[in-house]
Amino acid sequence: MHISDGVLSAPVWMAGYAAAAGIIAASIKKIKVDNMPKVAVMTSAFFVASLIRVPLGPTSVHLVLNGLVGIILGPAAFISIFVGLVLQAFLFQHGGITTIGINAIMMGTPALLAYKIFNLRNKFNFKRCEFIFGALAGGSGVFFGTGILALALVTTGSEFVGVAKYAVLAHLPMMIIEGIMTGFIASYLMKVKPEILGRR
Amino acid sequence: MHLPEIDKFAHLKSPLHSWDPRVKIISISILILSIVLLKDPRVAFLGLALAIILVFLSKIPFSFVFVHLRWVLFFVLALFVILSLTVPGNLLMRLSFLSISREGVKLSLLISLRAISAVLLIFPMIGTTRFNLSLKALQKIKIPDRLIELLMFTYRYIFVFLDEEKRIFMAANSRGWVRKTNLFTLKTMGNLVGMLLVRSFERTERIRDAMVSRGYSGRLKTLDNLTLCWNDFFKAALVIAGAIMLSLSGWMG
């Protein structure tokens, strides 16, 4: 779910950087110093997620975990994902350097949304609450990310409409797997260490 | 699985290793920018050549670089296939019902060249300095402390996390668990990842407490001092001149 260097037109990736810088500036104060270990762990989890493979028929898909980062970190999720992408670009050569901004928008803004979705669970009270809302949050993390990806490709040029279609198709199974996984992770955390998920 | 040890060859001696990291990061970023903005595949070839020369000068073994190029090559290959089939234009070749267009091939060639050159340049930029020194350089360039701290901690935990992840999945496999496409696999993996997170949280909290009790205040402090000399600016001038030449020859067509 990364865009590499050299694909997007300059205005698109520059706009990505500008928007990412704006969101970072607005949310950097929200990371408390004591919160740092939590943010760093989630950032490295996000970094490593692309190595965790889930089997899907004859092939496998990898996790994104941007929804989970959103659920656990809330407003600090965007910075976490940005830093994760910086490290992925420089240590793994996964993604691109000029596209860090747009990639952060692509995965970070859905993470913020996932947090809002997961918080809706406070209004309900039934047995599998965490699973359902975790799955919704995880799935929408990939869903909206894919939407932004397609939008970025299409605004770059009409040549990329084909690529955008294939990208959306390829992300559909990923969205379902990601949703179910996030649901299970959220219900596990609720059982074992509920304070990670914040107030309820 | 290879560990993301980008600074594995930071101990070598080369013109790039002796270059001040602040100036190095800024000038190579300018070069990357100029390559990514190229519009002509022929000029992009020049950019790729320049990137290869810099990797060569840095003495980082090409075998190490190739392992890291995996993701990019995979991406580029997929793009080649999709773009050459979907972009409309003059017919280059027809394979039964598939038609390959000249414009599609040209566009994907340009994108591949830009992407590969940009990635290659990461090695002389970051791979020739120890990672903590690169962070120190970023601190001097006035990147916010909070971001630097996060980069530093995350970099440290990635290795811890990968280690722990390997152990947890190995333990599950040794008890006869096999990954299949079913809900049970997803549930097990969800629980394992959840456990991985809980363990890592507790571990990192202990690490941070230990650091704070030794006087850590949230700001990166190292004993290394960065000093600038004329040589650093000379190298910067060379690299930036290369970047300007590329952009100019791009405009001239």
Overview of this structure, please?
The complex is a heterodimer of chains A (200) and B (253). A two-stranded antiparallel sheet of chain A has the order 1-2. Chain A has 200 residues and is mainly alpha-helical. Chain A is globular, with a radius of gyration of 16 Å. Helix content of chain A is 68%, strand content 4%. Chain A has helices spanning 10-27, 36-49, 66-73, 77-92, 100-119, 129-156, 161-192, and strands at residues 53-56, 59-62. The model of chain A has no long low-confidence stretch (mean pLDDT 89). The two termini of chain A are 32 Å apart. Chain B has eight helices and two strands; from the N terminus they run αααββααααα. In chain B, a hairpin with a 2-residue loop joins strand 1 (91-95) and strand 2 (98-101). Chain B has a two-stranded antiparallel ribbon. The longest helix of chain B is centred in the C-terminal third of the chain and has 31 residues, at 183-213. Chain B folds into two domains: 6-129 and 227-252, no CATH class; 142-213. In chain B, helix 2 runs antiparallel to helix 8 and helix 6 (145-174) packs across helix 7 (183-213). By secondary structure, chain B is mainly alpha-helical. Chain B has helices at residues 21-36, 41-57, 62-86, 102-126, 131-140, 145-174, 183-213, 230-252, and strands spanning 91-95, 98-101. The chains are: A mainly alpha (200), B mainly alpha (253). At the A-B interface, helix 2, strand 1, helix 4 and helix 7 of A face helix 1, helix 3, helix 4, helix 6 and helix 7 of B.
